[in-house]
Structures are given as C-alpha cells and as structure tokens.
Amino acid sequence: QVQFVESGGGLVQSGGSLRLSCAASGFTFSTYTMSWYRQAPEKERELVAVIFSTTGKTRYADSVKGRFTISRDNAKNTVYLQMNSLKPEDTAVYYCNARPAYESVWSPYWGQGTQVTVSS
Question: N or C: which end of the chain has fewer CB within 10 A?
C-alpha cells in the first residue's frame, strides 16, 4: 500500500528556512517521479516542486523558484524540500506525492501533511 509520511514543518519567521522530509513506501521509489504540493486555508492544493526519477531534473512553481529546492535519496526512499527565504504566503500544509516515471497521473493517496506557518 502506498504511504507518505511528511515531517519537518513548524513555525518560522519571515525570511527563515525549513527542511521538509517525506518518507515513502509501498512502491519502487527510485522509479517514481516525486513531488511536493501545498494547500493553504480555503485554497486548492497546488503543485510546488517536482523531481524526475529518470533524469533527476527538477521543476518549480514560479512562486517558489529560487527559494525552494527539491531533492531525493533513493536509498532512504525519501524526498526533501529545502525552503529558504520563507514568506507568509508560503503558509500551508505541505504534502508529497508520486507517480510512475512515464505516467502523468499522481497517486490518489495522500499523507497527513506537515504544517508550515510563516509569521510576518
């Protein structure tokens, strides 16, 4: 069964940093493209960052480009999100997700997420 366990969130001041982790299980991690999503109160869930399994390349939402870095450790089945220069608008619950390398649909399973709160 696919499972995601996110951690590392917390309360931080504007301009601060956090590093999120997501431990994944139930699939062959190294062959899956991984992502981070976030959902702010009363807003739809949005895709923040992607790291591809085949090339290791990354993609970011314009709102976080240059501030966030996604990375992965295939030996630990874990994906990370380093968040720097945090802004109050980054406040949200952050989730990870996965999809097979050559498919376009993300997993219907979600973890509990990790809350990130940025104070001004």
Answer: N
Can you give the pLDDT at residue 54? 82
Cα–Cα nearest to 67, from 15, 116, 114, 11: 15
Is the CB of residue 36 less than 8 Å from the CB of residue 94? yes
Long-range CB contacts for residues 47-50, cutoff 8 Å, separation at least 24: 48/81, 48/94, 49/81
Are the CB atoms for 106 and 98 separated by under 8 Å?
yes
Of 92, 101, 100, the C-alpha closest to 2 is 100
- pLDDT (tens digit per residue) in 68-88: 999 999 999 999 999 999 999
CA distance 48 to 18: 15
Q: How far is CA 37 from the centre of its chain?
A: 5
